[in-house]
UniProtKB/TrEMBL annotation:
Keyword Signal: yes
Gene Ontology terms: biological process: sporulation resulting in formation of a cellular spore
Highest classification ranks of the organism: Bacteria, Thermotogati, Deinococcota, Deinococci, Deinococcales
Protein name from the UniProt record: Sporulation protein
Species name: Deinococcus cellulosilyticus (strain DSM 18568 / NBRC 106333 / KACC 11606 / 5516J-15)
Pfam families linked to this entry: SpoIID
Residue span, Sporulation stage II protein D amidase enhancer LytB N-terminal domain: 109-196
Recorded superkingdom: Bacteria
Keyword line: Signal
A GO term from the CC aspect: outer membrane-bounded periplasmic space
Signal peptide: 1-17
Length: 388
């Protein structure tokens, strides 16, 4: 198995010799089933061939004391590699088809299963899992670029994997989510990323920012100049406006997880961030106000069922009403905002320039490659109130 050790990010138009391989954590469980419907071999960590087969094989794999057992027999190893597939082949892990290779690591009572594949093939699964393929192609191209950037920025040669397959990273479903409409957007943005100061940008994104992007500083305390708070007239989705009715008993139960000891009689927002997201709230009782700040302020809103922390709160005789805007943290690209911009005729460059002001779009290259020196211009910074 080949590991990428160094990556140089450059904002140049260049020719590339090879694609990056991305390692995705796809499972952590005690038992898995791997079906390989083609001639293949299984290797140890040092490259030794342990098993080979000229016919399709179902491998039932489990871990016992960190050792991997295959079809009921101890392999004597705690790491196994199943060879990479070719372009028209796939293997099945627990019934899901995947491109590329699979590596298994015995770790205590769990098998850590990592799928290694070409990053462009990885995007073929991620982009349609994150954005509906029926959306405008310019929105899909923007999503493809930030998904590629997200993965490149998180390459971690020292770890067992680079990214996970869930919403904690980017949703990856193997071949099951691939779609030819999305393949077009990926091919049209081949190897393109966005960067700031010649480093891959941190391309956070969410479903709908509720009409105002959040800065990275207010959400995570990290001030990145291209992740700013600003009005967004384009982000309009099903959760742009929502409300929740919360009983006092429900509020009491949730607040006790944060150290509240009384019986809730009310709820209020004490402080907002620059984008209108809560930074301090108080649970009210007969004994006074119990304040929560920072991450806990947003945490209790989400624990109460809120889709975002851009909310207003009203207390009445029967409980609390939370009026909210948006879905997700609101930092970086709004997916519904990208859709809205594309529907108005904006290009993927303009979409990215709006949501990540000051970044540049260009290509990545392996450190051993020598690029041409043709710098790209920064993406267009849009007036949030302009439209086509």
């Amino acid at each position: 198995m080949r590991f990428l050790m160094f990556l140089c990010v450059l904002l140049f138009g260049v020719a590339f010799a090879q694609d990056v391989q991305i390692r995705v954590l796809v499972a952590q469980q005690s038992k898995v089933q791997l079906v390989i419907p083609f001639s293949h071999h299984v290797m140890a960590f040092d490259g030794t061939v342990l098993y080979q087969s000229s016919t399709p094989v179902q491998w039932d794999l489990e871990v016992k004391g960190s050792r991997i057992w295959i079809n009921g027999q101890d392999s004597g190893r705690d790491v196994l590699h199943f060879q990479e597939t070719t372009a028209n082949q796939s293997l099945l892990l627990n019934g899901v088809r995947y491109r590329g290779a699979m590596s298994l690591y015995g770790q205590g009572s769990a098998l850590t299963v990592v799928n290694t594949l070409n990053i462009e093939d990885y995007l073929r699964s991620v982009v349609p899992a994150e954005m509906p393929p029926s959306w405008p192609v310019e929105a899909l191209k923007a999503q493809a670029i930030i998904a590629r950037t997200y993965a490149i920025e998180r390459l971690n040669p020292k770890g067992l994997y680079d990214v996970c397959a869930t919403q904690q990273c980017q949703v990856y479903k193997g071949q099951s989510s691939e779609n030819p409409l999305v393949d077009v957007a990926i091919s049209q943005t081949y190897k393109q990323i966005i960067a700031y100061n010649q480093r891959p940008a941190k391309t956070f994104f969410s479903s709908d920012n509720g009409g105002f992007t959040a800065s990275s500083a207010e959400v995570w305390g990290s001030n990145l100049p291209y992740l700013v708070a600003q009005p967004d007239p384009f982000s309009v989705g099903p959760k742009s406006k929502w409300s929740l009715n919360i009983s006092f008993s429900q509020l009491t139960s949730v607040a006790r997880n944060y150290g509240f000891k009384g019986t809730a009689k009310g709820f209020r927002v004490d402080k907002y961030s620059g984008s209108g997201r809560v930074t301090q709230v108080s649970v009210l009782s007969d004994s006074g106000a119990f304040a929560l700040s920072g991450a806990e302020a947003g945490g209790i809103i989400r624990a109460l069922g809120g889709f975002s922390t851009r909310v207003a709160v009203e207390t009445n005789d029967s409980g609390v009403v939370i009026y909210g805007s948006g879905y997700g943290h609101g930092v970086g690209l709004s997916q519904y905002g990208a859709k809205g911009m594309a529907e108005r005729g904006y290009s993927s460059d303009e979409i990215l320039g709006f949501y990540y002001p000051g970044v540049s779009r260009g290509g990545y290259t392996l450190a051993a490659e020598v690029p041409e020196t043709k710098p790209r211009q920064p993406l267009m910074r849009l007036n949030p109130l302009s439209s086509n």
